[in-house]
Amino acid sequence: ARLVFAAACGPGPQALFARMDCSREQDQPDDAQQKMKVSVSQVLAAIQSLYDDEVKPVGRVILQRLREHAAEAAGLDQADVDSAPQVDARRVRAICEHSRRLHLVPDACREYAAYIVDMPGRFVDVLSTADPYPPELWHALDVYFQWCFAHGFAFPAGRYKSAKLLVARQLPFLRGRSLGQVCHIIHLAVAQRRLLGYLNRGLVPFRFSEDFHRILGALQGPCVVDTTMRAATAEEARAGVWTLLQLSPAGAIELSELKDKFRET
After folding, report:
1. Which sign does the torsion angle of CA 213, 23, 38, 70 carry?
2. How many Cα atoms sit within 13 Å of 230 on the Cβ side?
């Protein structure tokens, strides 16, 4: 198994994984960075590429895809996408609102989706509870994440970024799967199958995750997770979440990232 997955990881896996845990620590408020101006054609190309990947083109994902395209144009690899400038989120939304080739639809949590006019999309519902994937896939995914964890490779907490890394690795058990499908697979692995969980801003095998230790602590009595942080009051929680939403370029936050970002505020 070690030889198989070492080959599957491809050349230089450290370059893809080593920086993932610290990438968010380098984030700064949107007004502290120079925003990247994008054109209508660039926004259309980003949305078209999301169609190709079967990923619903919501605002925050469009912004991420624009950064990916900018990083690729600059000759950066996937691990360096976060070093690309932030995209001007207001300009992107304005383009989506005023372009005759796009149809903007309000989405959840102050988000929006931008669809190409007269182009039906086949988007994967990444939150669906349906599990159409074979047992062999789940076994291979479990073994692969165990191998990566044992060798010190971390995956980011967000479904989209982890899915991008997995697709980039061209793993045999994910061959032929779209990016949207891999996002769904990661969601099921966390929410239903409990193959994966969260630890220190990353995805890890479930038995090493914070949720596993919480369950273990509940079964054993006193909580086994050592923490010196006090619990936030309801007012502090509301104020903290409001501040994070204001700082977020898209006006939305991935639920998987909320706790870590709240602790940093």
Report:
1. negative
2. 4
Could you give the CA distance from residue 71 to residue 187 in angstroms, rounded to a whole number? 26
Distance CA 184, CA 263 (A): 28
Q: Which pLDDT value is given to residue 219?
A: 67
State the pairing for strand pair 202-205/155-156: antiparallel
Most confident of 6-10, 109-113, 213-217: 109-113
- Two tokens at 105? 């639809």
Residue 66 dihedral angles phi and psi, to the nearest 5°: -65, -40
Distance, CA of 95 to CA of 66 (rounded, Å): 13
Strand order in the sheet with 196-199: 155-156, 202-205, 196-199
Torsion angle, CA of 79/80/83/85, rounded to 10 degrees? -110
Decide if 220 contacts 211 (C-beta within 8 A): no
Q: Is the pLDDT score of 79 beyond 70?
A: no
The string of pLDDT tens digits covering residues 175-215 is 999 999 999 999 999 999 999 998 887 899 988 888 777 77
Instruction: Provide the 3-class DSSP secondary structure of residue 207.
Output: helix
The predicted pLDDT at position 16 comes to 38
- Specify the pTM: 0.70
- pLDDT over 70 for what percent of the chain? 74
For residue 87, the 8-state DSSP code is: B
Instruction: Give the separation between CA 217 and CA 223, rounded to whole angstroms.
Output: 4
Residue 202 belongs to what H/E stretch?
strand 202-205
- Residue 197's DSSP bridge partners are 204
